[in-house]
Amino acid sequence: MITLPGKVMKGSNIFSTLMFRYLPYWPMFVLLMIVSTIVAWNYTRFLVPLYEASATVLIKDGTSQAPDAKMMEALNLGPSQKNVENEIEVIQSRTFMKAVVDSLALYISIFEEGNIHSVSAYTSSPITIKAENPDELQEYNKIYFSYDKKNETVQINNISYPLNSWVKTPYGTLQFNKNTKQKTDSFKPLFFQY
Length: 194
Prior knowledge:
- This protein is an alpha+beta fold and 194 residues long.
- Helix content is 32%, strand content 21%.
- It has helices at residues 14-22, 26-46, 67-74, 80-92, 94-104, and strands at residues 109-112, 119-120, 127-131, 143-148, 153-156, 159-162, 166-169, 172-178, 190-193.
- The strands form 2 sheets. Strands 2-1-9-4-5-6 form a 6-stranded antiparallel β-sheet, with no helix packed on it. It has a 3-stranded antiparallel β-sheet with strand order 3-8-7, with no helix packed on it.
């Protein structure tokens, strides 16, 4: 029995009807699968990773509460609610955030040059960089450097700087230290920026 496209004859099932209707187009399906796989692979390869961090802070109140104090707190009349609000303000303050940025040297980022986009060199850079006066830094983009493992020096614009000491550079007074978090070697040019 012959079935025509778009017509379902009695006694045929839906699987054979679909096979008859779409089987002639199998090269197009294979081509679309190959193109989709290539596009998805390139998208994930060049996608810049984003990381999310979260934390929970427990604020302990140092005062012991009597039963009357608990009732006052339930009515929002007690001082413990103010203590929590004060601690939240401290955590969100600009001074506190600046201290975190300065202590972790988050004002300087080190990258590894890429063909399409640069990637963070957090675990591939042989050095870390700190500034003596982070508030006085000017914004710079792509300051290329190299590391001489034998002499333990950093070279910027053909000038060598030693590790573990404050040195004056055209970009401010900096200190170069070994990166304790290095897991892999970088094979592409490294640069830092403020």
